[in-house]
């Protein structure tokens, strides 16, 4: 009978070992490990508690059994209770009768209405460092845990440690690959800026000065001006450059998902939350998080973000244990946040927290001397990508590019040059090769009566240009927003503000 039992134990251990080598889903793995541990040592309930070094306590990462979900609401101080003692001393502990052991911390059992009789707890180690504990409660059938059970639980602790180590290595490699891709894309670190204008030099000097600090940066400016490039530059010039840069486009994530995307969720927080999930803030720990289009965040999410900036803490959706993170925040928006605050669409206290070091990234029309440099840079880029051999952009074409208004800024210029490289049939790009959508760029299209204010002239251009794009796309706003390279919600707001209609 004993041999059969050992054979079943070995089978469970082999199953877990094979699973470790097939997935990096750490939460699923740890749940499976503790489920197997329960079966092998015949326990009623089990938990994995991990050490939170910032708070100097342990939190329940996995909790199985009838009261598992309730137990996960609690934390244990280092040295407190059986689990706290094992974590602090890094030694296993077998307690046949908890009532006779002064180290037992009975508060959790009382609060969840669970009768704890016996506990077996072993340290969870990565190399020589204790990162948590594994514990099992109450032997099924009323028996007591044995030294053989302790040895088996230590085997499962080793498997859990391997799982955690593999998951961490996987994350490190993933972030290293992300950063390597950035290096290959931009040719060097920090990212390459194309431009010799006094404006761009001034902004770069500001970025270089703030990069060496952990100060929050707010990047302002129109869409397509290169705010994301500035965020990358600041990160790669900072002391955090070896740690992750996590980017989030707040406008691209549905409102009902943005909170869990940023802060994560716990298992059972909602219908599809089958496992715990780390949010972007946890992934960015020790590094930088870039929140683009930050003005699109809802008021509740803004409140959570404010707490992170003030205390460096947050709760996962559905969670009760606060997480602490060490991040540097860079935010960006193409909106006027003063107006958003005055219309109660953006929290004033959050605005002041963000507006510590604002950098306004100037539109392309305000630094026209950079247009020839950018145009030729994009020419070489797309020559290589498209296997073309176009030698230059003619002076008349450069002159036209410098006269154009560029509502889409550098991004629009990049698209125009790419399209021109595709369509050009000679080895020189001329005026006739310059297209926006399917129409040639025309200075005449920008003629306006000099009786309008600048704001009226800009709105007049926006109205005409958006109307034209909508007409060409059957008034389909989703398609039009893709062409305009703005968010669908922002296009709808512009249509209302500019009083655009089919009639």
Overall average residue pLDDT: 83
Gyration radius (Cα, Å) is 30 Å
Terminal Cα span: 86 Å
| Beta strands, count | 17
Helix share bin: 40-55%
Plain-language structure description:
The structure is a single chain. With 503 residues, the chain is α/β, with parallel strands linked by helices. The chain folds into four domains: 2-169, Beta-Lactamase; 188-360, Rossmann fold (3-Layer(aba) Sandwich), CATH 3.40.50.300; 364-446, Helicase, Ruva Protein, domain 3; 454-497, Arc Repressor Mutant, subunit A. It has 19 helices and 17 strands. The strands form five sheets. A six-stranded antiparallel β-sheet has the order 3-2-1-6-5-4, with helices on both faces. Strand 1 (43-52) and strand 2 form a beta hairpin. Helix 14 (371-386) packs across helix 16 (409-423) and helix 18 (477-484) packs across helix 19 (488-497). Residues 1-5, 172-190 and 443-449 have low confidence and may be disordered.
């Amino acid at each position: 009978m004993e041999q059969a039992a050992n054979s079943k134990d070995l089978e469970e251990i082999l199953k877990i070992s094979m699973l470790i080598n097939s997935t990096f889903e750490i939460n699923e793995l740890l749940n499976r490990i503790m489920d197997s541990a329960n079966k092998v040592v015949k326990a009623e309930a089990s938990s994995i508690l991990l050490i939170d070094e910032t708070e100097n306590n342990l939190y329940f990462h996995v909790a199985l059994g009838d009261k598992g979900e309730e137990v996960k609401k609690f934390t244990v101080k280092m040295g407190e209770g059986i689990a706290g003692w094992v974590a602090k001393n890094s030694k296993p502990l077998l307690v046949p009768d908890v009532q006779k052991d002064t180290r037992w911390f009975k508060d959790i059992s009382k609060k969840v209405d669970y009768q704890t009789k016996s506990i077996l707890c072993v340290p969870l180690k990565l190399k020589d460092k204790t990162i948590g504990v594994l514990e099992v409660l109450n032997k099924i059938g009323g028996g007591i845990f044995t030294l053989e059970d302790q040895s088996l639980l230590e085997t499962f602790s080793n498997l859990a440690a391997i799982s955690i180590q593999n998951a961490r290595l996987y994350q490190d490699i993933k972030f290293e690959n992300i950063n390597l891709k950035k290096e290959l894309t931009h040719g060097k670190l920090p990212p390459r800026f194309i431009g010799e204008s006094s404006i761009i030099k001034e902004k770069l000097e500001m970025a270089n000065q703030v990069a060496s600090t952990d100060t929050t940066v707010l990047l302002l400016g129109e869409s397509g001006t290169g705010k994301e490039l500035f965020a990358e530059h600041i990160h790669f010039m900072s002391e955090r450059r070896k740690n992750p840069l996590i980017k989030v486009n707040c406008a691209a994530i549905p409102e009902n998902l943005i909170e869990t995307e940023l802060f994560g969720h716990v298992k059972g927080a909602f219908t599809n939350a089958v496992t715990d999930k780390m949010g972007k803030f946890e992934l960015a720990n020790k590094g930088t998080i870039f929140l683009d289009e930050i003005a699109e965040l809802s008021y509740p999410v803004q409140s959570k973000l404010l707490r992170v900036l003030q205390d460096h803490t947050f709760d996962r959706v559905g969670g009760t244990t606060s997480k602490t993170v060490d991040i540097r925040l860079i935010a960006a928006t193409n909106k006027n946040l003063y107006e958003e605050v005055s219309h109660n669409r953006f929290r004033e206290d959050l605005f002041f927290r963000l507006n510590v070091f604002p950098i306004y990234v100037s539109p392309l029309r305000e630094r026209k001397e950079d247009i020839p440099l950018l145009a030729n840079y994009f020419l070489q880029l797309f020559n290589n990508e498209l296997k073309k051999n176009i030698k230059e952009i003619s002076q008349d074409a450069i002159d036209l590019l410098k006269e154009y208004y560029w509502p889409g800024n550098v991004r629009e210029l990049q698209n125009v040059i790419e399209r021109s490289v595709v369509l050009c049939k000679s080895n020189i790009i001329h005026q006739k090769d310059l297209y926006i959508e399917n129409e040639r760029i025309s200075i005449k299209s920008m003629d306006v009566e000099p009786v309008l204010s600048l704001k009226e002239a800009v709105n007049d251009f926006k109205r005409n240009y958006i109307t034209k794009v909508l007409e060409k796309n059957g008034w389909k706003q989703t398609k039009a927003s893709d062409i305009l390279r703005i968010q669908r919600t922002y296009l709808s707001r512009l249509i209302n503000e500019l009083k655009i209609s089919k009639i």
